[in-house]
Each structure stands twice: as C-alpha cells, then as structure tokens.
Design a protein that fits this description.
Blueprint lengths: L2 H11 L7 H12 L9 H36 L21 E7 L7 E12 L6 E8 L2 E8 L5 E8 L22 H39 L1
Antiparallel strand pairs: 1-2, 1-5, 2-3, 3-4
C-alpha cells in the first residue's frame, strides 16, 4: 500500500485522534519494527503518541481521585472506628469464621435497634461498599443477614469471638454442612455479652446514685 493510500484510509475511518488511539497504539508498535514506518505520516504518528500519553495520564489521575474520594467517604462514616475491624493489616480484624453481633436500625426516622449475631461467612472489601454476611440458625432454620459496614443504619459491630478454626475466606459450605460449626455457642456468647453490658450499666448507675445519696446525707447532717 502506498503512503497516500494509507493516509487516506486512516483519515476515512478515524475522524478524531482520540477515537484512533487504540488502533494507533498498535500501529505505533508495528511502526517501531519498521514495517509501517513508511506508510503513516509523521504528523499522524506524533498525534497518536500525544493522545496515548494524555489518555494514560488521565487514567492515572482518575484512579488517584477515586482512591481519595473513597478514603474521604470511609473517614466520614467511620464514626466509631469500625474501619480498624476490616483493615487487612490488623491482626485482630474480622475474618470469615468470626462470631459477630451487629446492631442495626429498622428505619432512619422511627427505627428500633435490632441485634443479630452469627458467624461471618463472607466479607467483601471494597472501600465504602465494604460488607459482611452473617449466618445463624433461628428456630432450626438457617438465616443469613448481609450488612453494609459503613451504612448509617448499622449502629454497632461487636466481635464476640475471633476466628480460630477456619482457613478459607468464604464459608459458604456451612450452608450444606451445618454440623461443622457449633451454632449453640453463638447464643451463649450473646448472653455473656448481654450480661457484661448489664453489669457495666448497673455499675455506672450504682456509682451515680451512690454519689447522689452521699451528697444528700451530708446535707441533712449539716442541717
């Protein structure tokens, strides 16, 4: 193919340099070997190189901006430091096999807190869209709940027991093999956590009420 014919073919099929970037990239690669160097005008080769460089720079900038936006969103919704529970560098992070209790709201306006505890069978690490799936048995029926970690509907995430017995990142096989996990242990952990919270609240209330009684007694003695 002659040089004018090649130039006419490129000009007819590609009206803009950006549209021609993918084909020009392969053409430039071939031109480096000397096969098509004489078939394309030098001005077209320079234009293709410029478009390719600008496209690469634009992709890098967009990736950087996306990472920065994700980090800002996570920091905004990380009100109680729950992001540390899903950081891969944290040795005490939540993993598949951990027993976790999640408290969520039924509604953002007049919602009541609802607690659900279960074993983590899957975790999806994806920035602000990070989520986890819990599985438990309620009235001898398998129940699963999926939660968005940074959702404002999720008020708290507590680790009742860290992962110790599983190696895989996905525990979907527990659906077909429930005997591989002691599901009754989850109820015992929930009761223990409720008792611990009740004792802590009772101690705090007793401390406050005790302080008030002492103050009243001193006042009466002075009178």
């Amino acid at each position: 193919m002659s040089r004018p014919a090649a130039a006419a073919l490129v000009a007819r099929h590609f009206s803009t340099a950006r549209t021609a970037a993918p084909v020009l990239r392969s053409a430039l690669t071939t031109a480096a070997t000397g096969a098509m160097a004489a078939s394309l005008p030098s001005s077209l080769l320079l234009a293709g190189s410029s478009v390719i460089n600008n496209t690469t720079t634009g992709n890098s900038m967009s990736t950087l901006v996306r990472i920065q936006q994700t980090a800002a969103n996570v920091a905004h919704y990380d009100v109680d430091g729950r992001s540390a529970l899903f950081t891969k560098t944290n040795p005490d992070r939540i993993r598949a096999g951990s027993v976790v209790q999640v408290t969520s709201l039924t509604s953002m306006t007049k919602g009541k807190p609802v607690m659900f505890a279960g074993v983590v069978i899957a975790i999806r690490h994806k920035g602000i869209d990070t989520s986890l799936t819990l599985r438990n048995y309620v009235l001898k029926t398998g129940v699963e709940q999926a939660y968005k970690v940074y959702s404002p509907m999720v008020t708290s995430i507590k680790v009742l027991k860290p992962q110790t017995a599983f190696v895989r990142n996905k525990l979907y096989y527990l659906r077909d093999n429930p005997k591989l996990f002691k599901w009754g242990a989850i109820d015992d952990l929930v009761k223990s956590e409720a008792l611990r919270v009740a004792v802590a609240d009772g101690t705090a209330v007793a401390a406050k009420s005790g302080g008030k009684k002492d103050g009243k007694g001193k006042g009466k003695g002075r009178r």
